[in-house]
Q: What sequence folds into this?
């Protein structure tokens, strides 16, 4: 049986329900956005279920591979024109060292904060974000630095403020 932190007391373990797992997948993008804003993962069952899913090593390693794919595509000649949603290839190439650091942090077997993983996920999937949209108000380098900071395994997994 899988268990999860939920409903305010981070030391209380509650069973994950199949319904919660399915809904957390369906509403993953919205839940990730909530996590990026700093909302406590354990404050709702769905957010807690989503957080537990995205911090799993398997999911983080898959996300690191997705970032690697973005780097490879951005490095190809004409990369910005070859996709339905074009990449901002120049920005991605300029941010390559930060993206590689993000990939390393995602793939580490140490536990990391759900907020950092959610930040990396939103950057990767948000068509209005700086990876895909040249008019995005978000600076890619700054957003990557924020995500990397949240993925520091030395940071406590739960904020004292929660």
A:
């Amino acid at each position: 049986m899988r268990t999860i932190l939920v409903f305010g007391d981070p030391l209380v373990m509650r069973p994950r329900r199949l319904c919660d797992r399915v809904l957390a997948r369906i509403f993953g993008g919205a839940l990730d956005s909530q996590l990026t804003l700093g909302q406590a993962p354990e404050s709702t069952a769905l957010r807690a279920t989503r957080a537990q899913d995205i911090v799993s090593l398997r999911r983080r390693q898959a996300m690191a591979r997705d970032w690697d794919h973005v780097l490879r595509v951005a490095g190809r000649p004409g990369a910005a024109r070859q996709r339905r949603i074009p990449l901002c290839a120049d920005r991605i190439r300029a941010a390559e060292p930060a993206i590689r650091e993000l990939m390393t942090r995602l793939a580490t077997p140490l536990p990391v904060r759900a907020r950092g993983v959610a930040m990396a996920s939103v950057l990767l999937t948000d068509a209005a974000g700086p990876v895909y949209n040249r008019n995005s108000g978000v600076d890619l380098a700054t957003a990557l630095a924020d995500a990397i900071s949240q993925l520091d395994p030395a940071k406590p997994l739960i904020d004292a403020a929660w």
User: Anything to note?
Assistant: Residues 1-54 form one domain. DSSP finds eight helices and two strands in the chain. The chain has two domains: 1-54, 56-162.
